[in-house]
Structure formats: C-alpha cells, structure tokens
Design a protein that fits this description.
Layout lengths: L1 H21 L14 E2 L6 E8 L5 H12 L6 E7 L4 H6 L7 E6 L6 E10 L3 E10 H4 L7 H14 L37 H10 L31 E5 L5 E9 L2 E9 L1 H6 L10
Parallel strand pairs: 1-6, 2-3, 2-4, 4-6
Antiparallel strand pairs: 5-6, 5-9, 7-8, 8-9
C-alpha cells in the first residue's frame, strides 16, 4: 500500500511540475483595463494614432507603433498620421473621433510622468483616446534616457487599446505594461520597454468577439466639454484605485448614460514618495 501511495504522490507532483513549466505563475493573469475595447465588426482591425510629438520623441513613437502591430495572435494593426505639433495643440492634446492622439509637452511639475485617457460609450466601448508624455520631467536627468522614454510611450499608447498593467509593484515582467522604472541604476536597462507575447495574447482575448457596430471613426459624445484643459487634474473625476507604491492611479469621470472618461496616471517617483497612499493631485 505504501508503494502505491508513493507512486500516486509522485504522479501528482509530476503533473504539477509540468503545469508550472507550461503555465508559469502569473504569466497568464489578465491585464485587460476593465473590459474596455474599441467596437469593430471584423478582425484584424486598424487603429490610427495621430502624431503630435516633437522630433525628440519620434523614434519612440515609431517604435511603439511598430511593436503594437507585431506579435503572433495579435488582432491589432496601428497606423499613424501627422498631427499638429504647435505647442498649444500638444498641451491640449484633444481627443479625436475614432482615433488616438499622442502628444508630448511641458505639462508642468504636477507629479505625473505619463497620462492615458479614453472616452467610453455604452459602458465598455472606447470612442477616443489620448496619451501624453510630460516633458517637464523628461527634460530632467532622472527621466531623460531612451529606455524610460520608450517604456512610458509604449505604455500610454497601450492603455488606449484597452490594456491595464501586468503589475504595479515595480518588478519587471519585461513588458512596457508593467511598472518597472528605467531610471537610476536601471537607466541602461532595456527591460520593460516593449510589449511581450502576453500583451498580444491579451489583445486577442479582449478582441475575440465582434461587435454589431464600430467606434473606430465614430464618436458618441464630444471629448472636450470643459472650458479649460479636459486633462487638468480637477477634471479627472474620482480616484478609483491606486497602487501600493503610489506610482499608478486610475480615475473615472462619469458623464452619465454609460459615457465615461477614464484615465491611467503614471506618477513620478518623487510624487509617489511624498505620500504613497494620497491622491497625488493634491500633493502639489
């Protein structure tokens, strides 16, 4: 009887070992942003990113768009068109019907490094998006390095497709959708600067179904209903969640009837260290 039990135990242990090898812990955890997605009637589909970035950001913008169009099992293609590079246009970075607007500007020493915004209709369908990189920090020696620029550019655009974070504890899953920091001793590291296969698989899962209509090239409501900057912190709505290390915050502005504006905010290390559990909008 004892030998039979040992054989059974060995069989169970072998099965568990195989499962761990094939499905490593956490590797296939979902990082969909609340199930939000662009409505479309066919796959693969193409999203257009309007480029309002200055020349010093151009290589990071181009690399991110190419990366987000790559990968096996990826239903998404990304194209780009030239946008307005005037300073005031980049600062407002107005969301555009059925497209994503990518901008960099000196948005001020307000604590955030990157800001991704999406408009939602029908509770789940993305109609517009924007990604903003804050040169007030990227012009400093702490953040002004190619790896941190590429990491933040890739992540903010990734959010506008409906992706959340793979982790928020500062560890690297070697995807730009994690919260590893390519600064300080890690400034020379290329970890976490580009999407990985898990990101492409997550996009395939998010977009596995088809919709009866499309929001690509369609808008259910105007993005800018405020008299001032729609991305000003007092227009972000309520704080939904914040990471334990204080670097990631998620805000939601409910416009009624299933229409919302949602924002992922990537805070600087300095902002997070002021008070990890505080709403950083009010730290400055």
């Amino acid at each position: 009887m004892k030998s039979k039990i040992n054989l059974v135990n060995l069989s169970i242990m072998a099965a568990v070992l195989v499962a761990v090898m094939i499905f490593p812990t956490g590797a296939y955890a979902t990082h969909s942003w609340g199930g939000y997605h662009w409505a479309r009637t066919s796959n693969p589909f193409t999203l257009t990113v309007v480029d309002s970035n200055t020349p010093d950001w151009q290589s990071y913008f181009n690399t991110s768009n190419i990366d987000w169009s790559n990968g096996s099992n990826n239903p998404l293609n990304v194209s780009s068109v030239q946008g307005n590079e005037a300073s005031n246009a980049r600062k407002r970075c107005v969301m555009i019907t059925g497209k994503i607007h990518s901008c960099n500007a000196a948005y001020g020493n307000n604590g955030w490094l990157g800001l991704a915004s999406i408009n939602i209709t029908g509770g789940v369908h993305i109609t517009q998006g924007s990604s903003k990189m804050n040169d007030s920090y990227f012009s400093s020696s702490t953040y002004n390095n190619p790896n941190e620029r590429l990491h933040v550019m890739c992540q903010e655009i990734g959010h506008t497709f409906g992706l959340g974070h793979t982790s928020e504890d500062g560890s690297s899953q070697n995807t730009c959708m994690d919260y590893f920091s390519n600064t300080g001793v890690n400034a020379g590291s290329t970890l976490s600067t580009r999407p990985n296969q898990h990101d492409y698989d997550q996009l395939a899962s998010i977009y596995a179904h088809l919709d009866s209509s499309t929001t690509i090239g369609f808008s259910a409501f105007a993005a800018n209903t405020f008299g001032d900057d729609p991305d000003a912190p007092h227009n972000w709505g309520r704080l939904v969640s914040q990471s334990a290390n204080g670097r990631s915050s998620y805000y939601e502005l409910d416009r009624g009837n299933g229409n919302k504006t949602l924002r992922h905010v990537f805070w600087t290390n300095e902002a997070a260290e002021v008070c990890r559990g505080c709403d950083h909008r009010y730290d400055h």
